[in-house]
Amino acid sequence: MKSFDLAELIGLAALWGASFLFMRMGAAEFGPVALSAVRVVGATLFLIPLLALRGQIGVLRRHWAPIFVVGVLNSALPFLCFSYAALSITAGLSSIFNAATPLFGALIAWLWLKDRLTASRVAGLAVGFAGVLWLAWDKASFKPGGSGWAIVACLAATFCYGLSASFTKKRLTGVAPLAVAAGSQLSAAIVLVLPALVWWPAAMPSQHAWMAAALLALACTGVAYVLFFRLIAHIGPANAISVTFLIPVFAVLWGWVFLDEGLTAAMVAGCAVILVGTGLTTGLLKLPGTGAKEVLGSRG
Length: 300
Fold this sequence. Notes:
With about 300 residues, the protein is an all-alpha fold. It has helices at about 5-30, 30-55, 55-60, 65-85, 90-100, 100-110, 120-140, 150-170, 175-200, 205-235, 235-240, 245-260, 265-280; strands at about 115-120, 295. It is about 80% helix and about 0% strand.
């Protein structure tokens, strides 16, 4: 990997890690629905002009139906879930649960698309989900003011991401990535604008909250999408997905620096277990002695 690509990868992780910080900073004043709507509207205003400059608006028109589904599964619902979670759990903890996304992606791809599972990937799923359950068991409380429903929301968001990945592979393979990115944000905006007007906060959010929402929309969504697709083109999807390992590091760092959030031993251990599972599941790590032909399941 070239040094410039590595710098972009680290920059992308810093941006996506910061998204959990900005959700924490904006969710209390905006509410989850309004904050998510501001995020996708802002990202749409950033990405659609880029799509037009590249002459790919026609691509969006031709594939609007599956792109709309991706917008709901990959943006509207998970952004709502993580914004809701930001009301009661730290940025670092939300990002650790987000690291389970490749686990859900691999499991759904196996069940739906009949993707093959190597022994390493099966072990990764077992290890990764064990880490998720352990961390959730340690942190979840469904008493008033507890974090239980916030953790459920985080896991629901990662499930949506995993489902969206398989849907995209099945229905949008070969479609220009920027068209999918811009169209999905536009679709999410269409879905969320009316609910946001209904649940718009009675008191106008502060300048501080608006700044967090603007950075969430433009930097952590608009610019981040562009960086992610550049990385896929330059270093391939397998290497680009390694950003998953860096996001919790930056989310915890930003939460500690700007919000004075703490980090417990259980969070560190749970994150390590989840990331080992993710590494095995995505193929970045392999069990000793496993060969490329050792697989479980079949491709239909």
